[in-house]
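Quick one: structure for this chain?
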Amino acid sequence: MNRKEIREIATGLGFLLPNILGFLAFTAVPLVISLVMAFTDWNLEMHNMFKDNTVQFIWFDNFIKLFADPDFIRYLSNTLFMMMGIPFGIAGSLFAAMLLNNDFKGGSKRIWGICLASVVLIISISALMLAGMHATATMMLITAVLGVILLIGCAGGQTVYRTLFYFPHFTAGVSTYILWKKLYSPENGPINNALRKVLDSVSPFLAQMSDTTAHAIANIMLIVAIALIGYSFWRKIKHWLDGDCGSFSLAISLAILSIALILTSCWSRLTVPALAVLAVAFICTLVVLIRGRKYRCVLDYGLSDAVIISGTILVFSLILAGLSNVIWDLPAQATAGLTPPKWHADYNWAKPALMLMGFWGAIGSNNTLLYLAGLSGVSQELYEAADIDGASPWQRFWSITWPQLSNITFFILIMAVIGGLQGGFEMAKAMTNGGPAGATTTLSYYIYIEGFSTGRLGYASAVSWTLFAMVFLVTLFNWKFGNRYTNE
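Got it. Here's what it folds into:
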């Protein structure tokens, strides 16, 4: 190289030097140190300037202890439980994108005049109802804000609604969590103030329900959950026989559905029927696999359907099982008087409360923007051809919209899983401190507790690198399949 080239390279490195030094100081070096720490017994209570103990290499002892630690298993289950809200966040983002993709500001001035008058009438009736129910000032304020948003959006059209939907994304995380903590306040929060009136109204009706009726409804919900899983088994096997699903995709789907059926049976009162369905499904699967199929395809064809659809069935079946348990004892609870939940202050409601908050955050986030961009790329000729063939709105969605957005859905799912594994620290720290009784402690918060509360830096580093391994596996899965078969 001549002097000019050396001088140009040196000049470029000079401009890049602040970024390089920052990366080394705050990313690369800490990563190497944490990796080394994971194989040591570094504990701030034992190894500090006031004691002569030296840090010892214990190699894989931290990792062996980690997988035998009941707290790690418990907090991993908390993390996976709260990730069950991912399908709802994806569905809500898609639904919001499909609504925001429509042009609201159309038609004649007379029609829009009627729409605006209807909105004003709805707002007025809502205000009168709240006043008659002696609603709090906070509840009245929230209703007024929602009414104003509806009014402005109706007048301004698509652009206004898109802007309003994306506003929460700019809100700082901690301030949002503090706001939701106030909303969830058990005694005087707006959510419980509204629920208290509703529960007082429906309690007499539910108290009159017989135990037989409640048990029948609960069992019906369980049967629906089991039937849904059984239908999914049959659907996936049929796709495999028709060449629309590879053997690897079939195995992934059947594994997810089997987990769904096992968990549903554990959480329900119909354990024997659920396990019977599982046994029949496996027998039928073995018979079909032994007989083989006529139409062949690559092993991982249909993987996006296996992961997304089967995962959604898993979540819905568990929700139905949980609701059936609630309905089973509902008459007795109504007789004693239904009260609003204590949300983040109650062990059983803390995780659902955070999941509801996460669902709110998912609507209008970057996922909605991605879906809006994907919807703009769907050819209108496909919809016109479907209209000519007499397709219903559901058929248009399932046969055109959903397949065209499958690559975006797959990307959003992978990123949501990675975010779910890594997340949970800020909301747990700001709202619950990981409680009550560790109900909202996730792996990220567990790392904080072990590293900065108890001072066990070596063990915390082992947990961190275990979490990294989980995220890396999901990333490898995305690298392998993210660009393949997502337009099926």
